[in-house]
Design goal:
Length: 630
């Protein structure tokens, strides 16, 4: 791990209108935080009690470092809290979900309609033999059926593993086999920039040598030219639920039963299957959605993330629906058919809360202010950012151009592993561009040196979490050693893998990863996974990848490749290798640049020194290279 270092930043701040704090759920941040610190269990008990429990818990948590059990003897069901609870609480005819596809296609579901569709899908899965504890892989575009499938799994106690629809066959295969999925739910195509992109053939390749898979459910969208269904294993999505009962009782789940597995890139090759459980995750997602976004009953909430990532789980699906929100999902891209598409959606649907990624914000900055100026954005009241640090320039553009100098900006820091927001600037508090904010009430975080001692303000160090929280992940699926590593790196703390710095007001700026992960457009890409894909090409002997700063994506991937004997560098070979990575892992993990080299810097034990490659690429001092191989 790197040594501590000094960081220069400004103390420029923006002060929100005082009425924002006065009318927010959380009220005074410091008062709420002090109440949490004084009695953490009472704090979380109060938030958990706002949800439905079939059987109440007798205690809030059991903490045996580094393992926690939250609400351990409580019985609940998160899908019940998302749907049944809303239907029973006079929200049955409120709009729950608005789907906006390309070419102005739309679908709208009330809470009652979504509730009934989820129960039908739950019974369809039961018809396929899915029972409590079985794993179901969901590999779909952003369509209502994706959310319906997630909630149906949760309703019957099946463990869902959602895989981002942009991943290639190899990445999908590793996630299907890793989770030992019994059923895979997919679609024939996704639509992007006016074109249909096939998905089913990726599934067909991915389930080769995947013995756990018994059925594949296919949502057929190309109705004028439907794909063939292979009846030996496949079933049409709507055929599956056509003749089933619209009633399905929610499974009574122990709070510590697994809810989902979500694979995230690791620094050691194979993706990590992060396991979240029913009760603690439910409480964390509910509490943060309500309080960080200050969600009210008349809000129209739009999180632009895909449910293939943790943001989509917590803040597209579970958190907003538990709060009875009206949510929007879109299948399109931010700049199709033009750069005004997002802003027209805000105007058309009266979006009040917008939660998007710094990559999108920087892209809009490049396209100019004319596009958002064409739409009426006055409905917006809160702006959110997620996925990577929001740089000061992007913060100020977002605040000024999109928020018209009046909307609070909540720049959220958290992880797949945390399940919920951990650090942000709560509604009504002063905003410092570039700084995510302070630990939210319910979270204890700090910036420390490699020995776990807090570092002075203005000095960089390692971001750590000091106390357990309800939505903390419980395990890395079938890999207890990888779970333990999170807690052993800096003894006594959960080490998040990010470098950070605090200002004198206690606000935290996240600087980037301290391990071998590259954050591209807000998504963690493991260097080892990309290097493995590169080396699997017949012409590649060795490979190393680094992240390079990019004005739009935050980082892009550059690959250094050593060729096998008999292969010579050429533009054609470069394109073949890039295509190979695209097909293997998907376009998000594809390098933007390949450099053919004859050697790579390594330690004497053979470990590639990526920081040396990065320092040379960026024209920086590589630091101590005494361990480098001659």
């Amino acid at each position: 791990m790197a040594e501590d270092f000094s960081v220069k930043f400004t103390d420029k701040q923006y002060l929100p209108d005082p009425s924002v704090k006065k009318n927010s759920w959380i009220g005074d941040y410091q008062k709420a935080y002090n109440a949490f610190i004084k009695d953490p269990d009472s704090f979380w008990d109060k938030n958990a009690s706002e949800l439905h429990w079939f059987s109440p818990y007798s205690k809030v948590k059991e903490w045996n470092f580094p393992h926690a059990r939250w609400f351990p003897d409580g019985k609940t069901n998160i899908a019940y809290n998302c749907l049944d609870r809303q239907v029973q609480n006079a929200r049955r005819n409120k709009v729950a979900l608005i789907w906006k596809g390309e070419e102005d296609t739309e679908r709208i579901y009330t809470y009652r309609q979504l509730y009934r569709e989820v129960m039908r899908m739950a019974n369809g899965l039961k018809k396929l033999g899915v029972v409590k504890g079985d794993r179901v892989c969901i590999y779909m575009p952003m369509v209502p059926e994706q959310i319906i499938s997630m909630l149906a799994c949760a309703r019957i106690g099946a463990v869902h593993s959602v895989v981002f629809g942009g991943f290639g066959a190899a990445a999908l295969h590793s996630r299907i086999t890793g989770a030992e999925a019994k059923v895979v739910i997919t679609a024939d195509v996704t639509f992007r920039r006016g074109k249909s992109i096939p998905l089913k053939h990726i599934i067909e390749e991915a389930i080769i040598d995947a013995p756990s898979v018994e059925h594949v459910v296919v949502l057929r969208r190309e109705l004028h030219q439907p794909v063939e269904i292979h009846r030996e294993m496949e079933v049409d999505f709507y055929d599956l639920i056509k003749d089933v009962s619209p009633d399905c009782e929610a499974e009574v789940m122990d709070a510590e039963d697994p809810l989902f597995i979500l694979y995230t890139s690791g620094s050691t090759g194979a993706p990590k299957g992060i396991v979240h459980t029913c009760g603690g995750y439910m409480v964390g997602a509910y509490y943060t959605t309500k309080n960080v976004f200050d969600i009210k009953d008349n809000d129209v909430y739009w999180c632009t993330a895909d449910p293939g990532w943790i943001t989509g789980h917590s803040y597209v699906v579970y958190g907003p629906l538990m709060n009875g929100a009206t949510i929007i999902i879109t299948e399109g891209t931010p700049d199709y058919p033009d750069a005004g598409s997002y802003w027209r959606i805000v105007e058309d649907f009266g979006v009040t809360i917008l939660y998007t990624a710094p990559t999108a914000i920087r892209m809009f900055m490049k396209m100019g202010e004319d596009w958002p100026d064409k739409s009426n954005l006055s409905s917006l009241r809160i702006l959110g950012s997620v996925g990577e640090p929001l740089n000061p320039e992007a913060f100020e553009w977002y605040y000024r151009v999109i928020g018209n100098n009046r909307c609070p900006v909540v720049d959220t820091w958290w992880q797949t592993e945390t399940g919920m927001h951990m650090i942000t600037t709560m509604i009504g508090e002063p905003m410092y561009p570039g700084f995510a904010g302070k630990p939210i009430p319910g979270v204890v975080a700090d910036v420390v040196d490699k020995d776990g001692k807090p570092v002075p303000h203005g000095t960089g160090g390692f971001l750590v979490l000091k106390e357990p929280w309800p939505s903390m992940f419980r395990a890395v699926f079938k890999d207890p050693e990888r779970y333990q590593k999170y807690w052993d790196t800096i003894p006594g703390y959960y080490t998040v893998g990010d470098l950070a710095v605090k200002n004198k007001q206690g606000y935290i700026m996240v600087l980037g990863r301290s391990d071998d992960l590259i954050v591209v457009a807000g998504h963690n890409i493991g260097t080892a996974e990309v290097e493995s894909a590169l080396v699997s090409h017949k012409a590649v002997a060795e490979a190393a990848v680094i992240g390079k700063p990019d004005d739009v994506k935050g980082n892009v991937i550059k690959a250094f490749v050593i060729l096998r004997l008999g292969h010579e560098p050429s533009d054609r070979l470069k394109n073949e290798i890039l295509y190979h990575v695209r097909i293997t892992l998907g376009p998000i993990a594809m390098p933007s640049e390949i450099e053919f080299v004859t050697s790579l810097p390594k330690t004497r034990s053979g470990k590639i020194m990526r920081r040396v490659l990065k320092a040379k690429e960026m024209g920086m001092d590589p630091g101590d290279i005494s361990t480098i191989e001659d």
